[in-house]
Every structure is written in C-alpha cells, then in structure tokens.
Design brief:
By secondary structure, this protein is α+β, with helices and mostly antiparallel strands. It contains three helices and five strands, in the order βαβββαβα. 24% of the residues lie in helices and 29% in strands. The two termini are 17 Å apart.
Amino acid sequence: MGVYLNPPGIGPCEKSVWLREQGTPLEGPPEWEDTPDGQCIICCVDNYGRFEAAAVCHNPEELAEFNRIDDPRPKAWFYLDKKIVATAARGLF
C-alpha cells in the first residue's frame, strides 16, 4: 500500500476538487522524468463514487502501478508541490 493524501477538512469525495485548487491538472499520466523540481505526481482515483483516493506516485514503480491498463477506475492526474504533499500526507518528506 502506498502513500495517500488526506488533507484536513476535505471529505472523501472532494479530493479531486482540492487537487484542482492546489495543484496543476494534467491531461493524463505524465512521464516520471518530466516531473518538475519540487513537485510530486498525484493520481486521484475515483472508487466509483464511494470515495476518492489521492495517491502519491513517489517513484516510477508507483506511477506504473496506478497507470495499469487493467485498472478501469477513473483517474485524474496532477502535479502538486512537495510542501503541500508533506502536510497532506503528514510528513512524507
């Protein structure tokens, strides 16, 4: 199990809204090597309306795991500043 963001005051189905406000939305999954300095790749997974999981892709393997073709769940991709990630993930960095 990876690292997930749980920002204070954000409901289980509001993480994509929070990420759009705090981060940079992407058209799809980025390439690991294209990640700007000071940024993290976040994959926001829609678990069919029950809740959203905002996963930190902290290495190329984690990015590949969330980009698997056999995972049909809807996903939105973002760049998010590492300082914000550290706060929302409670000390990842």
